[in-house]
Amino acid sequence: MTVEAAADPILRIDHVTKRFGGLVAVDDVTFDVKKGEIFALIGPNGAGKTTLFNGITGIFPPTAGRIVFQGREITGAKPHQVAAFGIARTFQNIRLFEYMSSLDNVRLGQHCRMHAKLWDSLFKTPAEHREEQRVTDRAMELLQFVGIEQYTHIYARNLPYGSQRRLEIARALATNPALLLLDEPAAGFTPQEKVELMGLVHKIVDQGITVFLIEHDMKVVMGVSRRIVVLDHGEKIAEGTPEQVRRDQRVIEAYLGTQH
Amino acid sequence: MRGLLSRLGSILESDPRKNPNAVVYLVLAVATIAFPIGVQVATRGSGSFLISQAADAGVYILLAIGLNVVVGFAGLLDLGYAAFFAIGAYTYAFVASDHLEFTPIHQALHIPFWIALLVGMFAAAGAGAILGAPTLRLRGDYLAIVTLGFGEIVPRLFRNASTWTSGVNGISALDTPALPIWLNGPWSGDALAIVQNFKIIDPLAYYVIMAILVAISVLLVNNLRRSRMGRAWMAVREDEVAAAAMGVNTVGVKLLAFSIGAAFSGFAGTFYGAKLSLVSPENFGFTVSITILIMVVLGGMGNIPGVIVGALLIYYVIFNILPGLPQQASDFANSIGATSLNSPSGDWPGLAGEVQRLKYLIFGLILVLTMLLRPQGLLPSRQRAEELQKGVHDDTTIEDVNAETT
Ligand SMILES: Nc1ncnc2c1ncn2[C@@H]1O[C@H](COP(=O)(O)OP(=O)(O)OP(=O)(O)O)[C@@H](O)[C@H]1O
Ligand SMILES: [Mg+2]
């Protein structure tokens, strides 16, 4: 990855605020995610990290501020439009389609990239047939990519916990995103599993996809991302390299303040 | 045709324990062909009534297949499904009888049955889209309430707008369906000239047409289930937020399911009106909506063969068993010598009268018992079966719902 390519912002969070009634969950936050990087958002419980993801993906549009993706303003766009623009996500508390097989979960992810219309589906036209074939092949590829191909025909709910997290990533990749948002992808993992998952994250970035991840565990983040933003009580309290952030007085206070 | 044969072949070869649906389809297909022959043999040629009833049951099968798309596939609760049935039937009454002449239009329309089927279908689908578009944006429970209201309003509208619909009297003398013109074109020659003005009045003709329509519907709906759309419905049913985040336009796909369901209902309504040659606002009440819903739930939501079996069973219970129950009860009392039970006295209307009064209670009890014993329905889809036994089989391998059957 060249320095020039990394300089382009793919996502711009511009003075974004989100209020839930009287609670300011995200408070006037501004930062850029650069193309091709692994960018991390950290912060203690309730800092507003997930809320920010929900704002980006259109689930809870921000109260104020702008979100710009690849030069196009996407503030207030519907979730399915955001996905079509090229932003995919996983959820902090896994939200798979439990009673669909792993294969179907990943095939569903390709929904917005498919062209079959009602007519094609009703009459199983040759074009539809080819598309289904292509989508199935791609889904198999993705299951292999995240390393859970042995569960292809198993209901998502019957997968082991770690594989469910990987399946969510495969499903998100199926939407063919330019930017992948991962909400605590390593939550509940053993240190060994965390290392493996970060290996997968690197593999994803190598495919040219920008990764923007939320992580609780500072140590994990320090190892993978070059740039970090820290949120506390909805406010951005620090931004910079892992070293800068680790030494930041407000960050130390925020983390110590919530850890007793 | 080759596809059909190879599919049939795979049905015959497949292990019934793995795919019970294949067996049910096969049994249903054989029964469909054997039924009219069997009836005519058993009744020595006077089985027209039974065959006609079977064609009516087919109307309910179409309705159940359609409602299954809405409730079973997309997980939307539609409590006013009969409204679309009414719209289909009334559409036929308007476009295929002298009736419009007596309305402010003063011009009768006589559209051929086969085209009217499509007109009725699109009229109902259109009504579904108009009703669904604003409602499906809201949370699921609202749809139930709105469709409930819609189901009450539509028959009432047909009853009260009497300048247009002749109110409670309904519209009668609807056109008898004829064979499509292209079936007796110039090539038919003298030998087939008698077909020229062939009208479909024989119950067997309705039966055959119905069987073909049901077969086509099953094929098409199965195709839908195993398509991009079918997957999207399933995803929306499971987790709307996740589906949306994966790029599914949830409102759009729900609207599509809702309209397709309505289209089926309208289609079935057109057939129903044409066969009965009469439509009346009394035939499309809340009980009809609920009956169809029961067929779907009891048969096995989401599973097409299950829904067909459910429709047949409930139809049989409601239209054959329940009406005969009072007579059977009093016969039974006579046969065991308890004749006094049959004579009315005071509050007691006689056993037959009492059973008559209680027959829907009995029906309700049957339903409650069935659902207690088999909450997933008689022939559930795999998902449904599993959902109802969460955690029992934790490592079950399932066959992929979208896997190709050929
Ligand atoms: N839909 C909602 N309605 C009301 N309040 C909400 C909603 N979603 C989040 N909040 C509140 O916003 C604040 C930020 O929550 P958020 O989930 O974004 O935190 P987080 O940084 O992701 O925390 P965690 O590390 O625990 O996941 C919390 O106080 C939370 O209670
Ligand atoms: Mg969170």
Question: Mind explaining what this structure looks like?
Answer:
The complex is a heterodimer of chains A (260) and B (406). Chain A has 260 residues and is an alpha/beta fold. Chain A has two domains: 1-86 and 181-260, P-loop containing nucleotide triphosphate hydrolases (Rossmann fold); 97-176, no CATH class. Chain A has helices spanning 3-7, 49-56, 79-85, 102-109, 118-123, 126-146, 161-174, 191-206, 218-224, 242-247, 249-257; strands at residues 9-20, 23-34, 38-42, 64-69, 72-73, 87-89, 179-183, 210-214, 227-232, 235-240. Chain A starts with a helix and ends with a helix. Chain B has helices at 2-13, 20-42, 48-73, 81-95, 113-135, 140-160, 162-165, 203-225, 228-238, 240-245, 250-276, 286-300, 304-335, 351-373, 382-387; strands at residues 96-97, 109-110, 171-172, 278-279. Chain B has one domain. By secondary structure, chain B is mostly helical. Chain B contains 15 helices and four strands. In chain B, the strands form two sheets. Chain B has a two-stranded antiparallel sheet. Chain B has a two-stranded antiparallel sheet with strand order 3-4. Helices cover 66% and strands 2% of the residues of chain B. The interface between A and B is large, with 47 and 36 residues. Bound molecules: adenosine-5'-triphosphate and magnesium ion. Magnesium ion binds at residues 49-50, 92 of chain A.
